[in-house]
Automatic annotation (TrEMBL):
Residues 8-68 form the HTH tetR-type domain. The keyword Transcription applies. It comes from the Bacteria. It comes from Kitasatospora paranensis. This is TetR/AcrR family transcriptional regulator. The keyword Endoplasmic reticulum does not apply.
C-alpha cells in the first residue's frame, strides 16, 4: 500500500519507504521511482534528498543494518545474569545467533544491508572502541569481544583483529544459508551448522 507524505522530514519518509520495499524485495526493489511512489511524492522530489540510486541505497542499507543491530541488542539483553565468564561467552553467542536468525528471517533486509553498505566507522577507528556502540553490528561485536578480555576469558594479546575472524565466519554461514548452496539445508542441519560455526569461533578465540 502506498504511503502519502504529508509533512515532516521527507528524507526520512523516503528512507522508510525504501526499507519497506527492501524487506520484501531486497536491494533490487530500492529504486528512486518506486520509493517516491511508495512515499506518495513525485520522482523529482526524491532528487532533492538523494543524488541518485547509490545514495538512496546506502541510506536504506544503513537502516537495515540498524535493524540487525537492534536484534543483536535485544538478544544480548536476554542473556540472564551468571558468572562473568560464562555470561560473556553467552552474550557473544547470542549476537552470533541473532545475526544468523536475521539473515534467515529477513532475507530482503539482510541482502540490502550489505549490498549498499558503506565502510563501518568502527573499522577505521584506532584505539579503544566507543563506550556506546549504538546499533552498529560491528561495534556490538567489538563490545562483546572487549567484554571477554575484561572478565579474563580472552587474553588481551589475542583480542586485536578478533572481530574480523568472528564476523567473517558468521556472515559466511549466513550467506551460504540465504543465497548459497546451503539454502535448502534441513532445519536440524541448520542448527548443527550454526552450533559448529559458533563453537569454532569460540575455540579460535
Amino acid at each position: 500500500m502506498n504511503r502519502t507524505y504529508h509533512h515532516g522530514n521527507l528524507r526520512e519518509a523516503l528512507v522508510d519507504a525504501g526499507v519497506a520495499l527492501a524487506r520484501g524485495g531486497g536491494p533490487q526493489a530500492v529504486v528512486l521511482r518506486a520509493v517516491s511512489r511508495e512515499a506518495g511524492v513525485s520522482h523529482n522530489a526524491a532528487y532533492r534528498h538523494f543524488t541518485g540510486h547509490e545514495d538512496l541505497l546506502a541510506a536504506v542499507a544503513a537502516r537495515c543494518t540498524e535493524q540487525l543491530g537492534q536484534l543483536m541488542i535485544s538478544r544480548t539483553a536476554a542473556v540472564g545474569p551468571d558468572d562473568p565468564v560464562p555470561r560473556a561467552w553467552a552474550r557473544l553467542e547470542a549476537i552470533g545467533r541473532a545475526y544468523l536468525d536475521f539473515a534467515r528471517t529477513e532475507h530482503g533486509w539482510f541482502r540490502t544491508a550489505f549490498s549498499g553498505a558503506g565502510g563501518h566507522g568502527g573499522v577505521k577507528q584506532a584505539g579503544p572502541h566507543p563506550t556506546d556502540p549504538g546499533a552498529d553490528p560491528y561495534l556490538l561485536l567489538a563490545a562483546r569481544l572487549d567484554e571477554l578480555v575484561e572478565v579474563g576469558a580472552l587474553p588481551a594479546d589475542r583480542r586485536p583483529g578478533a572481530e574480523y575472524a568472528a564476523w567473517s565466519a558468521v556472515h559466511g554461514l549466513s550467506s551460504l544459508l540465504v543465497d548459497g548452496p546451503l539454502r535448502d539445508l534441513p532445519e536440524d542441519e541448520v542448527r548443527l551448522a550454526a552450533q559448529s560455526v559458533l563453537a569454532v569461533v569460540s575455540r579460535g578465540l
